[in-house]
Specification:
The protein is an all-alpha fold. The protein has one domain (about 5-220): MetI-like fold, CATH 1.10.3720.10. Helices cover about 80% and strands about 0% of the residues. The N and C termini lie far apart (about 60 Å).
Length: about 220
Amino acid sequence: MSLEILWRYAPSLLSGFGVTILCWSVGAAIGLIVGFAIALLQRLRLAPLRWLLRIYIEIIRGTPFLVQLFLLYSGGPFIGLRLEATTAGILGLGIYSSAYFAEAFRAGFSAVPLGQIEAATSIGMTSLDILWRISLPTMLVATLPSIVNLLIILSKETVVLSIITVPELMYQMQTMAAETFTAFTAIFAMAIFYWLLVEAISRVGQRVERRVTAFMTPARAS
């Protein structure tokens, strides 16, 4: 492993790491918002809507992310959708992750004890109050570990974006390896960067989980 080569390509690798973080964070935010909206819509008693959402989830979960990315980036122009590589990568990550986040949120809502809902209804709480005061807090505690795990998995899915020339970490690593013929050095550097990202996500997730759990404990005790 050559430290001199690593130092020479450090600006490119850091730039690629920045693009990786950008794509992951914005894509994850889109996925969380869309997934949460899907989970809420699935709670409505509208059979056609629930079937359409179920079909969307199954299609997204049943096809590889790489295929979805190619369809979005290369197939988009056939329907008038022309996206820059980075934009397509972010949108692709958002669409791909939304199906998994939706399922996590759905499972979280299912974990809310039915007795709490019935008790809230019996004292005259509205559906919105029940959602805000009972369902959402309980769902958040139940799904937080799954959400953190999905965020970690999504961060590693960003390596696929290099296929459509998004200048993220994998793309910069491939350029470094091709120019210097030092594949091991490039792969080692990339592994370190991804390890740092995963560690950061995991640590932040654990901290949020502790704070949310501590916040919910007094409410449950009362």
